[in-house]
Amino acid sequence: MYQDLEGKVVVITGASTGLGKAMAERFGQEKCKVVINYYSSKDNVQEIIDSIEKSGGEASAIQGDVTKEEDIKRLIDHAVSTYGSLDVMINNAGIENEVPSEKLSLDDWNKVINTNLTGQFLGCREAIDYMVEHDIKGAIINMSSVHEVIPWPHFVHYAASKGGVKLMTETLALEFAPRGIRVNSIAPGAIDTPINAEKFKDPDKKKGVLELIPIGYIGKPEEIAACAAWLASKEASYVTGLTLFADGGMTQYPGFQAGRG
């Protein structure tokens, strides 16, 4: 736990499930004031709010589409009007779908780029604008992926979006370091989330994924949430422009493990 996080206002996009849910609950354990953004279904939102409040934090939820400027502005306004400030912005909302690149429609390309890259840019822009105006030395955390460095056939739109997140994060980190605003990203590997559940049900597919992970197991959402808490805390006060890979070694060329190659 990081005592300096207590009472901080944290906004998390795509926080009703998966990694977003785990991060919301972790910041609840840190006794933060958490704004949960969800896109459509709010089925488990109250459950997350209850969990955060039980941990000693505060929470509220707001619907919004991260690809729409007005929704992102409304999200920031909600955080400020409800809790009085904004200290941490986590741009987590993202989508993916598998399509052979030669069959990829412009519509599918735009949907992924608009959510994963443009949506994160809008979240960064609005949060940084508020922080600059109010002289807040805040933290921005973007959600990238191992596929910002690992090519991924049939997911060219996804890989392109995450490559964009990498340089967007680094550029914003450089631009706003003099204002005390830190901008970092987390790049998860294979994590046991609902988006991956169907794949991991297949024993052969799961075995194939495990062969790519030197540490030998599929990651848990709570392990990504722990990275986010550290990056938001004063323990990471000298860290900006970083992509923190939380991937069990997936980006370390696992094919060469045990001296192969």
TrEMBL record:
InterPro entries with a match to the protein in the record: NAD(P)-bd_dom_sf, Sc_DH/Rdtase_CS, SDR, SDR_fam
Descriptive protein name: SDR family oxidoreductase
The organism's superkingdom is given as: Bacteria
> Per its UniProt record, what PROSITE patterns does this chain match?
ADH_SHORT
Family listed: Belongs to the short-chain dehydrogenases/reductases (SDR) family.
PANTHER family tied to this protein: 3-OXOACYL-(ACYL-CARRIER-PROTEIN) REDUCTASE (PTHR42879), 3-OXOACYL-[ACYL-CARRIER-PROTEIN] REDUCTASE FABG (PTHR42879:SF2)
